[in-house]
């Protein structure tokens, strides 16, 4: 069985030893690990969100 190394801090947010992850993304990563049999999938490499400020980055 897989080792569980984190905790849910509040609804929609999962805290791991590497930082905070959206709970939906964490679930998707865990499903991908099971389907592909790749235990080496690192959520931090998959998750690289881009912050967009719609007021600063908007095309005028």
What does this entry look like structurally?
This protein is α+β, with helices and mostly antiparallel strands and 60 residues long. The protein has a domain at 6-43. 30% of the residues lie in helices and 22% in strands. A three-stranded antiparallel sheet has the order 1-2-3. A hairpin with a 2-residue loop joins strand 2 (13-16) and strand 3. It is extended. The mean pLDDT is 70.
Give a short account of the largest sheet.
3 strands, antiparallel
Mean pLDDT figure? 70
Number of helices: 2
So what's the overall shape? extended
Main sheet: which strands, in order across?
Answer: 1-2-3
Residues in β-strands, percent? 15-25%
**How many extended strands?**
3
SSE order: EEEHH
Q: Give the helix/strand class.
A: alpha+beta
Helix content: 25-40%
* Intertermini distance: 53 Å
Unreliable stretches (pLDDT < 50, length at least 5) are: none
Radius of gyration, Cα only, in angstroms?
15 Å
Provide the fold topology.
Elements: E1 6-10, E2 13-16, E3 19-22, H1 23-36, H2 43-46
Antiparallel strand pairs: 1-2, 2-3
Kindly list the characteristics that best describe this protein.
60 residues, alpha+beta, three-stranded antiparallel β-sheet, 30% helix
What is the compact description of this entry?
The chain has a domain at 6-43. Helix content is 30%, strand content 22%.
